[in-house]
Each structure stands twice: as structure tokens, then as C-alpha cells.
Amino acid sequence: MTERIVEQATFETAQLVAELERFLDQRGSLLHAETSEPINQKIGNFRYGVYAFFDYDGEPIYVGQTNEQLRVRIRRHLTNQRTDAVAMKVLDPFEVFEIEIWPLPDFEGQDMNASIARRLNWLERAVFDRLIEQSRFKAILNEKDPPLLVDATAVIPTGVRGRIVSEAVLKLRGHPDTRIARRAETLSLLAKVIAERRVQSGLRRTLLTQAKRLAWLAEKRMNELRGQPVSDEQARS
């Protein structure tokens, strides 16, 4: 039984890496702002940008930024689990179904500076606020809100969104009961972290959001069996 579990985990990890690389290796998905010509660079290779993760219901669950390369930062989140968000049980990589990224091509080739930092911070907050509005829970799992900055000249660039879960893994993970069990486990581990450490209120907010997400998914599953939908108003209550 243990060997079977290990084999499945190895298979799922290999599938994730393959689908993630396929997404990050896309070329021509972005256009030059001035010429409108496709940018012939792999989207994962841009150094600066903002990214967001979405679950199997299309719900935004995490937003972040990077100045070390989108590929490096996203892979660290989803494959080696060496980020604060994963270690603190804020983010469960197994819940990520789609990714959207917003690279900043104009800063490519430049060293990190105050101007780039300000644009990254602004963009992260702008994407964060947009996705909060799109969320049925009006909440995302981030422990902290990005800094609030005002920039009248800045606009959210075109994002690139794609799925990173193969059909084979979808069959293994996609069933609502499997997702309920996984989400309940993540919630329990997060509660354990909070109980054993001195944490900020943001982590408790994440716990509450995760509890709402679990309750919504469990109720959705129950109502599906009864032939009844779950409204967004119920999700936020």
C-alpha cells in the first residue's frame, strides 16, 4: 500500500513538472507595447512579474511577485515546497489548477532598483484587488495584503493564464471528496501551526478563509448529490 502511494505521488509530481514547464515555455503570448509584435521569449524566463494561482473551481487562492525570474519563483512554490506560504500551510500546491502571470518585459535586462520595486508592488496590489473582487469569498489565502500604492500612470499588463494539471492527474485529484479531504487536512495543519506558534492576525484570517472554502466545497458536494446549487452569498456567509 505504501509503495502504491509513493508511486502515485511520484507520478503526480512528474506530471506537474511537465505541465508547468509546458506553460512556462510558451513564446509569443505577450506583445511589445509599442510595436504590438509577439515577444519571442519564454514567458517563464522574465525576471520581473506577478503571478496568481487558481484552484479547481477557478477561485483565486494566492498572489505573489518575483524579481528573480517567474519560472524560479513559481517552481519553488509548487515543486520543492521551500517557501513560507507552503511551509506555513497557507498554500497547498495540490490545490493549484491554473496559473496566471503578468510579466514586466520593459524592465528585462535591468538590475533591481527602486523604480522596478515600486512597479512590482503596485502591480501585485492591483492584481490582488482585482482577484479579491472576482472571488466568491471576497478573500484570498495570502497571509498579508500587498502594500497599497497609487500610480495614475500604471496599468495592469496583459496576463497569460493556463492550466497545469494533466487529464491523468485531474482524474486522481479532481473528485470533490478527494479535494474535501485534502483541504480539511491543510486546514488542520494550518490550525496546528497557529496553535504552536506566535503568529500575526493575518494567518488567522487565512485560517478563516480556508475554513469558508472547505465549508463551501463540502456544501457544494452535498447539494450536488441533492441536485441543488450553492450560491455565492452562501459562500461568503
Key descriptive features of the protein:
single chain, 237 residues, alpha+beta, 4-stranded antiparallel β-sheet, 4 strands, 50% helix
Characterization of this structure:
The protein is globular, with a radius of gyration of 19 Å. It starts with a helix and ends with a helix. It is α+β, with helices and mostly antiparallel strands. The protein has helices at 2-24, 70-80, 84-87, 114-134, 167-173, 176-196, 201-226, 232-236; strands at residues 49-54, 60-66, 98-103, 160-163. The model has no long low-confidence stretch (mean pLDDT 88). A four-stranded antiparallel β-sheet has the order 2-1-3-4, sandwiched between helices. Helix 1 packs antiparallel against helix 2 (70-80) and helix 6 (176-196) packs antiparallel against helix 7.
What is the number of beta strands?
Answer: 4
Structural class: alpha+beta
Strand ordering within the main sheet: 2-1-3-4
Rg over CA atoms, rounded to whole Å, is 19 Å
Which stretches are low in confidence, meaning pLDDT under 50 for 5 or more residues running? Answer: none
What gross morphology would you assign?
A: globular
Average pLDDT reading = 88
Largest sheet: 4 strands, antiparallel
Terminal CA distance reads 40 Å
Q: What amount of the residues lies in strands?
A: 5-15%
Helical residue percent band: 40-55%
* SSE topology string: HEEHHEHEHHHH
**Count of separate DSSP helical elements:** 8
